[in-house]
């Protein structure tokens, strides 16, 4: 008599619910996971507390420099020998910025941090998250300090400078330089001192720097982690969506930067200089916390401190021991009840 395979048995609703729960169970945090997170966080802090202090110090110095009133000795042409405005590139009207400095700073820091956090739903690595977060802080703090020093000591005239300067009438040739057409802000400006000081801090663009430091770092994180563990660089493996995902942070950073040019707060050269500083600090921040920038086999591997490495190895040993004990208990249970190790979830055969 030949065996005839019957029709497939449809899983019940309870079985589907159990399967769905098992599929999503790794996303549900457990009490042991919180304890493990506490141990990892403590080890990470002990490894890097000098770095945290230095980041706070650099940020505080940048904030103090921002509050110090400075006026670089900038000269600007006011009138030509015929009495006409000599430099129309400084005569644009004042318009509020589309993104304020605070908004640009929050966007450039919180969105990359949130994206890195969401990526841990797939990566699930505390070492990766801690290294990525630390590198992001390095990039943001260093870039802000860099551009603030240049802005306060070098500076530059914004496109709307004459609108906030409100220069008083001056006789022709009463300035300095060739034909007496060059003037200083403190000599001819009658506008608000705060607006005048803001008007001579055009170089470099702080919005561009913070945008490219944060979103540029996120783009580097994406491009190094999207091929994590995949060394086959064929087009079919990479996919166009990965390219789009990498370019989205760059597009957002470019948009924030260009809004300053659109609202006459910066010249194009200021935005390019700020973007260069941001990209440079993003590259250095990532390279400081990860093992490589260009080597595809190592650029997604984080640098792990001594204490955190010890905590990770200890957890791995505990999981290995627990797994061996659980496997031994299952074998004893099967032997006690006469259960063989075959899989009984296959097709049901009927005579």
TrEMBL record:
Provide the transmembrane region boundaries: 49-68, 97-117, 129-150, 210-227, 239-262, 274-293
Is Lipid biosynthesis found in the keyword set? no
State a single Gene Ontology molecular function.
phosphatidate phosphatase activity
The record's listing under Pfam families reads:
PAP2
Membrane topology type:
Multi-pass membrane protein
Q: Which part of the chain is the Phosphatidic acid phosphatase type 2/haloperoxidase domain?
A: 134-286
InterPro entries reported for this sequence: PAP-like, PAP2/HPO, PAP2/HPO_sf
Gene3D superfamilies (alphabetical): Phosphatidic acid phosphatase type 2/haloperoxidase (1.20.144.10)
Q: What are the alphabetically sorted keywords of the record?
A: Membrane, Transmembrane, Transmembrane helix
**What's in the GO CC field?**
membrane
Please list the residue ranges that the record marks as compositionally biased, kind Acidic residues: 341-351
Source domain of life: Eukaryota
Q: What is this protein called?
A: Phosphatidic acid phosphatase type 2/haloperoxidase domain-containing protein
């Amino acid at each position: 008599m030949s065996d005839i395979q019957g029709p497939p048995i449809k899983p019940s609703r309870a079985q589907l619910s159990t399967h769905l729960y098992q599929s999503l169970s790794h996303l549900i945090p457990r009490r042991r996971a919180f304890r493990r997170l506490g141990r990892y966080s403590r080890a990470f802090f002990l490894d890097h507390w000098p770095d945290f202090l230095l980041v706070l110090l650099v940020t505080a110095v940048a904030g103090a420099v921002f509050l110090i009133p400075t006026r670089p000795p900038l000269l600007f042409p006011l009138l030509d020998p015929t009495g006409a405005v000599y430099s129309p590139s400084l005569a644009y009207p004042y318009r509020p910025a589309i993104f304020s400095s605070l908004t640009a700073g929050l966007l450039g820091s919180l969105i990359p941090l949130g994206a890195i956090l969401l990526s841990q739903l797939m990566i699930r690595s505390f070492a990766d998250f801690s290294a990525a977060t630390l590198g992001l802080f390095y990039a943001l703090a260093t870039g802000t300090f860099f551009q603030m020093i240049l802005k306060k000591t070098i500076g530059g005239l914004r496109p709307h400078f004459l609108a906030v300067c409100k220069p008083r009438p001056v006789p022709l040739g009463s300035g300095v330089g060739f034909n007496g057409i060059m003037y200083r802000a403190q000599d001819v400006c009658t506008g608000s001192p705060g607006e005048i000081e803001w008007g001579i801090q055009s170089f470099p663009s702080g919005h561009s720097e913070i945008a490219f430091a944060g979103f540029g770092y996120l783009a580097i994180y994406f491009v190094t982690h999207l091929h994590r563990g995949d060394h086959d660089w064929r087009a079919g493996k990479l996919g166009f969506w990965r390219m789009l995902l990498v370019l989205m942070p760059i597009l957002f950073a470019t948009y924030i930067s260009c809004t300053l040019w659109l609202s006459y707060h910066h010249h194009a050269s200021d935005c390019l200089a700020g973007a260069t500083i941001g990209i440079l600090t993003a590259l250095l921040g990532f390279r400081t916390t990860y093992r490589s920038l260009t080597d595809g086999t190592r650029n997604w591997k984080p640098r792990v401190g001594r204490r955190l490495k010890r905590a990770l190895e200890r957890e791995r040993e505990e999981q290995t021991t627990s797994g061996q004990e659980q496997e031994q208990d299952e074998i004893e249970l099967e032997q006690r009840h006469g259960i063989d190790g075959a899989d009984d979830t296959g097709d049901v055969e009927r005579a």
